[in-house]
Amino acid sequence: MQILATDLDRTLLPNGKWEADSGAIPLFNRLTRENDILLVYVTGRNLDLTERAIREYGVRFPDILCGDVGTTIRRYEQGHWHLDEGWSQHVHRTSPRWDAPALAAAVEGIDGLREQEPEHLNPFKQSYYVNHESKDQILREVDARVKGRFDEEIIYSFDSLDGKGLLDFLPHSATKQTALEYVASAFGSPREEVVFCGDSGNDIFPLTAGFCGVLVKNADEQLVDNVRAAMEADPRLQVYFAVGGFMGLNGNYASGVIEGCFHYGLFGDARSAAPDDGGMSQGV
Ligand SMILES: [Mg+2]
What we know:
Hypothetical Protein Ta0175, Chain: A, domain 2; globular
């Protein structure tokens, strides 16, 4: 069973400022079903917002949802979601000092930091809006108060569409990367056989963790730079940068995901499907 994991917003979903191919999502749905792929969504969205995305954009239901930035894992079977309780237990065990209320108290009163709405928080996810203009100062203050005290991961990302800075505190054992590692291990797949597609911010972790990475063409420049730097430091990393021009698709969003899947052979042989494939890749 081959695993395809993908971020949703601006990776699979065309909700950015770049042009989208209208047929890409139906093609993605068909190819993942025909090739018997285990499909995993790895997203910052919670369950409600994931279901809304499925309705709104017509992407298929996944087999597994690593939601809330990897802090929850659900299987989707015969029309129902099943929460993976083993994941919560694993996180508690491996991040014993994690304490969301204590962490919230520690950052209280930092200027330019505002707690997100309750639907964006959960016991393993303490999230804030950040005034992006003063983010350096805010993040220094956050580090001084929090770093190393709560077995935490501090993840900053910037939503270039609405200009919002976003700060997530997660247990360091519950991120997009570790959730995907847990799923891969549950299905007995070595990480070199798992494809992960992303576009920004916190996708850096799974993209540099030894999975087969794919950056869609519309990926943030900052992420592209960070991934290239990681590849220079570790030549074993495999990441494919979608360029478009493949099967008449433009490489953005779902088109880039499809291009990356062909590159890694998930959907059959890319060369026979598209002789003009001009993608760049490095690694073994
Ligand atoms: Mg994204």
